[in-house]
Amino acid sequence: MESILSSILLYFIIWICIYVLTSNLRSKKSAKLPPGPYSFPIIGNLHQLGEKPHQSFFKLSKTYGPLMSLKLGSKATIIVSSATIAREVLQRHDQIFSSRAVPNAAQTLDHHKFSMVWLPVSSRWRNIRKLCKENVFATQRLDASQGLRQEKLQELREYLRRCSVSRKTVNVGDAAFTTSLNLMSRTLFSKDFANYDSNSSQELKEIVWGVMKNLGVPNLSDYFPILQFVDLQGIKRGTKYYFQRCFDIFDDIIDERLLVRGQSETKKDDLLEAFLDHTIKHESEFSRTDLKHLLLVSINFFVCQLNFMNDYVTSCATGLSESRDLPIFTQSCRVYLN
């Protein structure tokens, strides 16, 4: 029995090696790529990434230029390290580069079939993009969010003041995350999801952190697509778990909002209200499933802001604790608000 299992494992390893090597040969013949470092068989340039890939890319760009090619496993990858070239790729030629490889985790629950981020250029993609442009990125919405940011930072300041008076130890990272989470939930749903003095919001914090972690961690299945069906790191299983929990919460919030809308003509000034109006108006083209995936994309958008705000507020608070200079902290917060 052991010999049979050993033979199967050996054949499987040989098959993977042949697949990766032939993929490398095909990619070299099929495209003329920018300059880049030598890539080893099977692993490509994975060994050159390090713990902080963005820093590794920057160092490599000093040798190979702002536009270079790397082989990440069996995937040929083009790296842009210049603002000028990035503008060409993301603005002037955005439609050419909008269709790209979909990460394995993003395929969970068919998210890539509904998400503006991963959909190929099509009428469906244009409609969702227009909806986001008119609501998420509208100038009026962005201007209004400044007042909300001021309100949430004022709440954070008041919480820190209370902790100071009561001599209570503060976890600055958790406090900053609570502030960011409430900023996101107020923009999307007109309600606060977290509370500084309560653990009742711990579940939602766990879900948001879970989504961030599973979508951000390097995945072997992306570098070696042949391993996708195995899910060696359990990333897709984890992503499915957190996505489903998100969708369950969305269902409850949507049902609650529809009930309120049925009882009153007064509407909330948030993204959910705008998305619901669009769903009802274009029911044949935009379903409830589309709505939930769009909310998930919106949360991912705000997650980027969560990361930025957490780092910014934490660094400001750390600087305050070291310098004991309140004006410096206040000025830093004003810089963020503007």
From TrEMBL:
The chain crosses the membrane at residues 6-22. Keywords: Membrane, Oxidoreductase, Transmembrane, Transmembrane helix. The keyword Ligase does not apply. It comes from the Eukaryota. GO terms for molecular function: oxidoreductase activity. This is Cytochrome P450. It comes from Cinchona calisaya.
